[in-house]
User: Fold these one by one.
Assistant:
Number 1:
Amino acid sequence: MVAIPLLSPYKMGKFDLSHRIVLAPLTRSRSYGYVAQPHAILYYTQRTTKGGFLISEAAGVSDTAQGYPHTPGIWTREQVEAWKPIVEAVHAKGGIFFCQLWHSGRASSTGYQPNGQAPISCTDQPPPVVELDDAPEEERTPPRRLRTDEIPQVVNDFRLAARNAVEAGFDGIEIHGANGYLIEQFMKDNVNDRTDEYGGSLENRCRFPLEVVAAVADEIGADRVGVRISPFADYMGCWDSDPEALGMYVVRELNKYDVLYCHVVEPRMSVVEGRRQIPHRLLPMRKAFKGTFIAAGGYDREEGNKVVGEGYTDLVAYGRLFISNPDLPRRFELDAPLNKYDRSTFYTPDPVVGYTDYPFLESSEM
Ligand SMILES: Cc1cc2nc3c(=O)[nH]c(=O)nc-3n(C[C@H](O)[C@H](O)[C@H](O)COP(=O)(O)O)c2cc1C
């Protein structure tokens, strides 16, 4: 039998992973009242393998963090308690489970904010009306620019959320510094128009993101902290004029904190002769980063095996394919056909349809 790079074991810090196929963070909009629901137990355990690594859907860090319907939070006692049985069930099957911590910043709107206030951001400029590929259409209202003296409070919200995640049983947390949300709004020069120490130079724009890293690492230990970034992306009208420099700066700074992993989203894919081409622009970052490197965005079995085999990345996170194939590692092992995903149910609130009803291969039925 030919060795399958994606199925080789890997030691990520103190975690012994049995393979390289990671469940990408995936918002599924089925957490009513911002509280994770019991149906998430089945969803996550379906996607758990012994020694497999899972990242949760983005969880809001505070009552100003939310920006979409039915997304979970992790700032109240009730929310923490609701995560516990989900995490326990994943652990019972031998999975390693991190919680992605999120603040949506200006991607939110007054309807999601306490007392109908404006969402907060580094800027008072609203995002343009361009949408994430698969995200539901959202009405947005202009944000309020955070005052300099308010920023430590937001940093502290991430710290407390990390503490809550550990209390809920998660093995660690991932800071959501990607896809046009609050942390990335600060990082990128077409959005961050501040004139204080949190805006202007690359160093200043990364100050808030790195303060979050420092706070969270101090709270739960850097060996339980991962960071997700997407320097090349332009989601939510959030882009940078020099993504290579931004990515390299962040990665080098992350080295100073000794964080466990860096998770980077590939640039958008182009399609050449009917096949998606992953741009593979992450190699300089991968080389510069001391910890575990995770690549995401557009990977299939063949591409994943290639990049792990070549040492371009340590792990590969799968999003849409893992939504529709709960037994993705098994299918990759057997090179079995994959279920197609149905975009129309990515964010619908049904607790079963498009969520836990994708079929398993007969041979890997739970
Ligand atoms: C339904 C859906 C929800 C997503 N939710 C999140 C999220 O909560 N946090 C995040 O960092 N990325 C999120 N993403 C992005 C994915 O993690 C991943 O980067 C993206 O789907 C590209 O990988 P893929 O080609 O393997 O699907 C989401 C993507 C989809 C399709």
Number 2:
Amino acid sequence: MEKRELVIIGAGPAGMTAAIYGRRAGLDVLLLERGAAGGQINTTEEIENWPGVQHATGPELGGMFRDHALKFKTEIRSLDVKKVELRGDAKIVVTDKGEIEAEAVIVATGAYFRRLGCEGEAEHIGQGVSYCAVCDGAFFEGEEIAVVGGGNTAVEEGLYLTAFASRVYIIHRRDEFRADRAAVERALANPKIVPVWNSVVERIEGDGAVENLVLKNVKTNEVSNLKVSGVFMFVGQSPCDECVRGLVKAGKEGWILANEHMETSVEGIFAAGDVRSKHLRQVVTAASDGAIAAMGASAYINEQLHLRSALLEPESVTAFFYSGADADQARLSNEAEKIAKEKGKENGKKMPIIDGYKNNRMIEKLGVALPSVVELRRGTVSKAVKVASEADLAEALA
Ligand SMILES: Cc1cc2nc3c(=O)[nH]c(=O)nc-3n(C[C@H](O)[C@H](O)[C@H](O)COP(=O)(O)OP(=O)(O)OC[C@H]3O[C@@H](n4cnc5c(N)ncnc54)[C@H](O)[C@@H]3O)c2cc1C
């Protein structure tokens, strides 16, 4: 089976930034993409909030990211990742074109906006139909626009859009919003916000750009026209998490949970960009996640190589295992380090000191309790002594 150091799934802004950082850290990087490199930005005509580039189309910016990743000799391969599996210690990326074993995986598969599904929506995406107020709000300075939805996102983004638009109609199929009371009160108190109750959008019309919405009142069946130059759909966003669903922990609606190092619940699998549970889904935050994930993956891969050569390969070795998350154990590790230095001078051997909190899988694999002094013979535990104090430690290492 093909073996690679870092496999990145998804060549959007997060995945391509991860590739640039991964290659510059000296890793062997394979970037897998099922569509066109660039990700979601490929579908937008205007990007004005990527620092340093005052204006670009989405495909232009995506192309710049791809060229940058290629400059550092990233291998980008066109295929669909079906799932990621753990087989023993190995992380296997299963694709429509075979399997790849990876030392570390970054899941950067992004997200998608749910469509409303009405007539005229698809043709007007980027021509007045938008799913992202932060991305596109500024293009509607002084114009009348509409928002579709009645939950928190619709109401809060509607309020955000009043900074640009002269009027924001919020079209909702019920006669009250489902959003938090505070947000609803602020929205209803804002003179620029006009709720359109009990209504759905039947059709979006316009020659090129959006000009008119055909609305239907769901109570009276009455049909009416609403002249607007833009319509923002807030009917939900979902993660593209299928390939790791059930493998890594996810929060509400499937958004992958990752910590500030982009580590998921599975050691060696990182998540970056829109696919993870986060507050702001934008190119700049996706790129930031990608950089952090790649540096985390690089540290993880180096640590795994170190663990293998320090613990599993030698004929015999004595190691100290502790939890870096426990202050007492961390103090004990400082003492272990001192003893290791002294003994090393005497016998010329190195004693690995391993943070079992960071290397949980190795701890599980060896079946070691923390903190312990452990003797290993060719990767198998031959003796393990649990220690609770400096005196215990000195005795175990005597
Ligand atoms: C119309 C529109 C306009 C936007 N405008 C702006 C804007 O002006 N400014 C801004 O900052 N942000 C904007 N955004 C948001 C921005 O595009 C996203 O936040 C950003 O692209 C997220 O990057 P990502 O790499 O996390 O995911 P994505 O861009 O979604 O990329 C994920 C990639 O993974 C691939 N993938 C998914 N699953 C698999 C699989 N199983 N196997 C292989 N490949 C897979 C996908 O094909 C995709 O290419 C806009 C989004 C849209 C839709």
Number 3:
Amino acid sequence: MDIKQLGYLGLSAREPDAFTTYATDILGMQRVAGEDDTTHFRIDDRHHRITVEASDRDGGAYYGWELADADALRAAMDELSDHGVIARQASQRELEIRRVAGMVHFLDPAGNRVELFHGATSGEGEFTSARDVERFITGELGLGHVVLASPDVSAQQRFYTDVLGFKISDTMRTPFQATFLHTNPRHHSIAFVDGPFFGIDQPFLHHFMLEVPDMDEVGRTYDLVLDREVPVTMTLGRHSNDQMFSFYAESPVGVHTEFGSGGVLIDDATWQVTEIPGPDLWGHRH
Ligand SMILES: [Fe+2]
């Protein structure tokens, strides 16, 4: 199947208002009114890219991967069923909350809720950052990336490549096992890291990444994080594989956020998959 991009991300929050303040005042997203116990966040032309749902738990709730159209979604369901994966149709309510024309969902081997969709709705008017972020790098590259920690990185890699059609960007064995996957030129839209290394046996969303065009915007956001005493979980640094200049902070839902600039793009015609010796060229101290 031909997944185009990471279209949207759903989070669960015990304190959605705290996440809203963080997402707008610190990260610069635009809050968009939601339904009942949901709040949406806009970062580009789309109605929203991130949704937070009030819950009795914190963390990643669902991951929305975009397909070209209804035919592609039907074909994807057939492919899933050939692999023994039964995808369920979204309810009308789920379609309304996500603002998409069609969606099916299933669980990956670690138990994460994967959603395949088509027909995203555009937002009204221009994206207007809650502070002064000019724009985020999205479009056909998707909203950014997600990094999921799970006990069995190899099983996740097999499922996402063999069944969902992602391509390997690179892998890492030390200091922890990781696999980085792409589905468009963005270096990785999803990566899997070894959960037990991080001291947690349950699958969890380690972080999501948002990218801006300007390195100074990363620096200004870093200053803001320090001024507001948000916990910095990794200092400024540059990743060895996607070359992202970024830092990590802990959001009020426990999930870390990576805010970065300068990520490389992959051309499948020339890209060589390698095993990288470590995650960072410099920095990212924790
Ligand atoms: Fe990242």
